[in-house]
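Protein in question kept in full:
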Amino acid sequence: MAVQLPHMFTERMKRLLGDQFDSFMQSYEQSPHAGLRVNTLKISMEQFKELAPFDLRPIPWCETGFYVPHGVKPGLHPYYHAGLYYIQEPSAMAPVEQLQVQPGDRVLDLCAAPGGKSTQIAAKLQGKGVLVTNDIHAERTKALAKNIELYGVRNAVVLNESPERIAEAFPHYFNKVLIDAPCSGEGMFRKDEDMVKSWEHHSVEKCVLMQRDILETAARLLAPGGTIVYSTCTFAPEENEAMIAAFLKQNRDFTVTNIADTAGFAPGRPDWVREMLPAQADETEEVLEQTRGTARLWPHLLEGEGHYVAVLQHIEADESDAKLSEHVNEKSALLNESSEDGLLRVESREGSDRGTRSGKPSGKAGRKAKEAGGRKSERGHTRATDSGNVDPLAVYSQFVKENLDMPLHGETVCYGDRVYQSAVGASRLEGLKVVRPGWFVGTIKNGRFVPSHPLACALRTSEARRSVNLSSADGEAVRYLKGETLNIEQERIMLHGETLSKGYVLVCIDGYAAGWGKWLDGVLKNEYPAGWRWTSR
């Protein structure tokens, strides 16, 4: 059934598209295209092609993206729960590809929930550098954090902050910034009928105000010589070409990097700004023509929904800018070093990491920390002690030595009883609303370290001293994902070195980490978290 489009929208598109309008309207009679993107943090492209349980067809603008046939449900397979791929609308993969992320970059995804583009960035970083992923809506950060964890991202920080507050904490820190801006959503009409219903209330004018503020703040977050990719899922020139032209006029040290007209991408339309917004076109005429180097993805020209992408390159002004960039690089490099046992001794803090200001004790836990006082860590920071006088870093360090074969990079920080490996360090997160200060590795309970599900999701079989492999073909993997206890013979427990079979076991599906179990005397106790379990029949 064809989508019922708002009359005001169709009249405007008829005016803009001219002889392409009929083809554009015919695209709404077709089903939206489904896609998935391979998570190369966990599996190589070659391995995935061998294992793939459904027919795949490459997406031209994303080397790790594939179309899946209509009616196929890739979310109903154990590989989805093992984080081997992310289900993503094909055109939504384009902005990150234009960001040209390289391992070691410092990347900010400013409007990130639910996390598709963040996981795409993380795969390109390959565990090196820093990813800060943020969304201003607290409820949406739950899905964002879960996706970051499911896909085995080790070097990400998840925030729930305004762009302005992030800019105060990270001035000119990131060399790559992605803005998938809040927009009127016209490009998603075919995929999501709710966008059609809300379009008249979610006005272009309101979106323009938000987009302008976000872009201006992003310029303060960007390191000299860095790149901003701005994207929307709307066709409106007010939110696209006009927005970029206004930004260029106010920020003369930026220029548009042209996007190649391949894979069906259409060039930007500065003429639409001249036609629809003549006053703004007159003000920005000097830079308006640059917007021809931006790109639109049209549903009648390629297999995907509507999208707009602009690449904004900062031009380094002088030697002082270069020195600032070098200084930021040096600080980032320090956080990729580790001590002899893989742990950096830093401050352990009380307080929740979920939606609270980082580093500030709150509520009952805060009062206990204040009453208990603290003692100095090896680096001279105050570390709050719990009622059992347990050193959380020592307990964590012991678990690592007994259960893992890997170095741990970055700072080890504790928020209350939760332990993290942070790629940016605790001091820079002071005062921000932090959802995840880093890779959540576990919890201190009753003087013991309990490994987290996100720790398991990010591990490789070679990094765990105990592992067991379940097959996706015989139902055993699904039983595990449903939370069932499994009978596993001792011979199936793969051991590294002189490790005993008893203890925490990394549970893998066809060789890829999916979670924890605890093995004893032929029984694998299921440690798969209740909130993540398989619920489909």
About this structure: Confidence is low (pLDDT under 50) at residues 330-387. The CA atoms of residues 405 and 462 lie 7 Å apart. The first strand starts at residue 34 and ends at 38.
